Amino acid sequence: MKVEEMVCIMCPLGCRLTVRQEDNGEIIVSGNRCPRGIEYGKQEMIEPLRILTSSVLVLNGELPLVSVKTNKPIPRRLVMKIMDILKNTRVEAPVRVGDVIIKDILNTGADIVATRNVERAERSDAA
C-alpha cells in the first residue's frame, strides 16, 4: 500500500487529502470536501499533471523574452525536460498572444503558446 498526503488545489477550500493506493491498485481519497478532490487525489497518485509557465528568448523584439505556457496540463515528470527545450528555444518578433511556439511538445498533446505580445524592435539605422 502507498499513502500520500497532499493539499487539493481544485477549489479555494484547499482540503488536506490522504490518498491511499491499495496493493490491488484501488485508490481511496479521504479528507475532500467536494467531489473534485477525489479526482484530483487519484490523478496525483497515478500521474501528476501541471500547467507549465516559462519564457522564451525573442530575437529582434522590443522585449528580450516572451512569456509562454502549456495550453493543457503535462505530466510533472516531463517538466525539467521541457524546461531544457525552452531554454534553447528562440522566436522571431513579432509574437502574438496565442502563437504556438512549439506544437505537441514531447508528444504530450500540449502546445507551448505565447501569453503576451512582443513587437518587433524599431531599428535605428542612423550612422
UniProtKB/TrEMBL annotation:
Pfam families listed in its UniProt record: DUF1667
Annotated InterPro entries: CPE0013-like_sf (IPR036593), DUF1667 (IPR012460)
Signal peptide bounds: none
Gene3D superfamilies per record:
CPE0013-like
Q: What is this protein called?
A: DUF1667 domain-containing protein
Organism name: Fervidobacterium islandicum
